[in-house]
């Protein structure tokens, strides 16, 4: 049995054990309403995790996604308020997030700046801009169109879950059935060897960060629509949940190993963990410790795997 298949089975078992434990701690855990709630609340995390998987596979990281989500949500709300059109507001939000992706990718790929430093700077810049532009307050009362994405259902399935599923499917297809996907793995495995093999490393790394920015914009729309407002402190610590989902799913922080299906399992694991701890009445600070322990354990297992 391959290590990849073994890790996937191990994670499925871990998810099953989670469900058993939390079901024993709370009668509400396995209710239909709560399971739907888990899916809806983690739809934006899943979308972000697709982009983060691509970034980490190249050996990069993006710490700024939570702050960019907040700024894009504020942007969508402000422009919707001015134009009266949520569509224009959402397009502006996605465009802004994509611009951040271009900015990150350019500095990482062409200026050889460490992605940790670049995206850490974006984390603080975007969060500061979100509070300045919004004057530190939520921007709501935007009409039913703004909240339509977050509230809509088709054949009983929340639209946000369908959007997340589509993002996961597209990400899986890109990595497994396109030349670009093969290049992403090659760059993460050994960028020098990829360059010598004729792969345009700079161009592909830039494309990865641009895609990540685009997906961040889509996640911002999903979150802002679900909240029904632009909230300057939304998306706080999202980067931790997203990175945790990707790493727990088996994607190596050193790049070159992992995939979207594993990321989906990691997202489910983290989503159930957060929800189950809340229902069990665990202290929020202890929940942070639990998440940290999970991340450290996943990275340690990755090192042992190597």
Salient structural properties:
single chain; 306 residues; mainly alpha; ABC transporter involved in vitamin B12 uptake, BtuC; 14 helices; 2 strands
In brief, what are we looking at here?
This protein is 75% helix and 1% strand.
What's the shape?
globular
Uncertain ranges: none
Largest sheet: 2 strands, antiparallel
Overall mean pLDDT stands at: 94
Q: What does this molecule look like?
A:
The longest helix is centred in the C-terminal third of the chain and has 27 residues, at 201-227. This protein has a domain at 34-235: ABC transporter involved in vitamin B12 uptake, BtuC (Orthogonal Bundle), CATH 1.10.3470.10. The chain is built from 14 helices and 2 strands. The chain is mostly helical. A hairpin with a 2-residue loop joins strand 1 (153-154) and strand 2. The mean pLDDT is 94. Helix 3 (43-57) packs across helix 13 (260-279) and helix 8 (159-177) packs across helix 9 (179-189).
């Amino acid at each position: 049995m391959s290590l990849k298949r073994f890790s996937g089975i191990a994670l499925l078992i871990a998810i099953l054990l989670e469900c058993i434990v939390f079901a024993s701690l709370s009668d509400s855990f396995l209710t239909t309403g709560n399971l739907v709630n888990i899916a809806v609340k983690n739809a934006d995390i899943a979308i972000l995790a697709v982009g983060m998987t691509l970034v980490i596979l190249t050996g990069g990281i993006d710490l700024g996604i939570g702050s960019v989500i907040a700024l894009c949500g504020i942007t969508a709300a402000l422009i919707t308020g001015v134009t009266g059109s949520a569509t224009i507001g959402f397009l502006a939000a996605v465009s802004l997030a994509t611009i951040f992706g271009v900015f990150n990718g350019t500095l990482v790929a062409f200026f050889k700046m460490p992605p940790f430093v670049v995206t850490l700077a974006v984390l603080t810049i975007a969060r500061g801009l979100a509070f300045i532009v919004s004057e530190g307050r939520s921007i709501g009362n935007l009409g039913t169109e703004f909240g339509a994405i977050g509230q809509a259902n088709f054949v009983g399935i929340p639209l946000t879950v369908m959007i997340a599923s589509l993002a996961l499917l597209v990400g899986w297809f890109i990595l497994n059935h396109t030349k670009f996907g093969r290049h992403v793995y090659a760059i993460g495995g050994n960028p020098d060897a990829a360059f010598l093999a004729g792969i345009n490393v700079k161009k592909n790394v830039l494309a990865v960060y641009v895609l990540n920015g685009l997906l961040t914009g889509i996640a911002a729309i999903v979150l802002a629509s679900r909240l029904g407002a632009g909230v300057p402190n939304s998306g706080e610590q999202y980067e931790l949940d997203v990175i945790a989902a990707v790493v727990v799913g088996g994607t190596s922080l050193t790049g070159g190993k992992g995939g979207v299906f594993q990321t989906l399992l990691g997202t489910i694991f983290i989503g159930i963990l957060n929800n189950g701890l809340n229902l069990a009445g665990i202290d929020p600070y202890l929940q942070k410790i639990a998440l940290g322990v999970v991340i450290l354990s996943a990275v340690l297992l990755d090192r042992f795997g190597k």
